[in-house]
Amino acid sequence: MPHTTTPSPSKTSIQLEDVESAAKPQRIKPTDYTDNNINQVENKRLKDVEISVPVVYGTMAFYLGKKASELQSHKWTVYVRGATNEDLSVVIKQVVFQLHPSFDNPIRVVESPPFELSECGWGEFEICISILFHDDVCDKHVDLFHLLKLYPDAESGPQSAKKPVVVETYNEIVFPDPSENFLARVLSHPAVYVPRLPAGFNLPAPVPSSNMNVKGKDGTKNHPLNHWFINFSEADELLKLASAHQRVQAHILKLRRQLSMLDGPPQPSKLAYGMISECT
């Protein structure tokens, strides 16, 4: 089984012709479109329309416990998934994972969902993840970089064979001026954010992509690692923000009480003395 030999390999992105990479952005645009391979009549572009695809990429590492050896201490999985675990093959044609060169066949191509691969090893290193899209989506690709993490932080306690180390990043890939075919295919897809279209706007019949999941749009909802995935839903984020707001308010109130104790009891104002004398 392959294993890592050094903790930090050099950063080498996979090169394709006429592509530009975007490393660790918050909202990713695969740069300007070119139309070399697109039929303009059949694939008309929609100006001033923007499609957004939320994606999550990351790694999940399990300690092998009693089965661990010096060279194979962990089993890990690197993946690209929908933010709500929906199928992304409606947009993504293939994902290329570039591993450390000490692995056999370090460049791995995954052409159908789930877009992931699993390996065993002992070292942490940076993985280059290249996402390629269907022809009617975009003829560019996006490069992402993710550090494989095997060992938990000190505050998380000792490593356990039952609880994995999960590191994920949320991004939104933005497609400006999409083709009519692309928009028609993802118009009602739960993994894609599509703007509201004008009333009476007509789109051609959707054309399925070649690698779309024939079993339906389950994506990673039934994935065996599903319960370890981080929840990136908007509702969950709002709950976290509300909880953080409550903690901040409670801390402010506590500090105010401490300051008031340091300053001593409040002194009545002159206005208060005047009101008392008039009432007596």
From TrEMBL:
Residues 1-31 are annotated as: Disordered. Residues 45-189 form the YEATS domain. Residues 1-13 have a biased composition (Low complexity). Keywords: Nucleus, Transcription, Transcription regulation. GO terms for biological process: regulation of DNA-templated transcription. One of its GO terms (cellular component) is nucleus. It comes from the Eukaryota. It is found in: Nucleus. Pfam families: YEATS. The keyword rRNA-binding does not apply. Its main location: nucleus. This is YEATS domain-containing protein. It comes from Salix brachista.
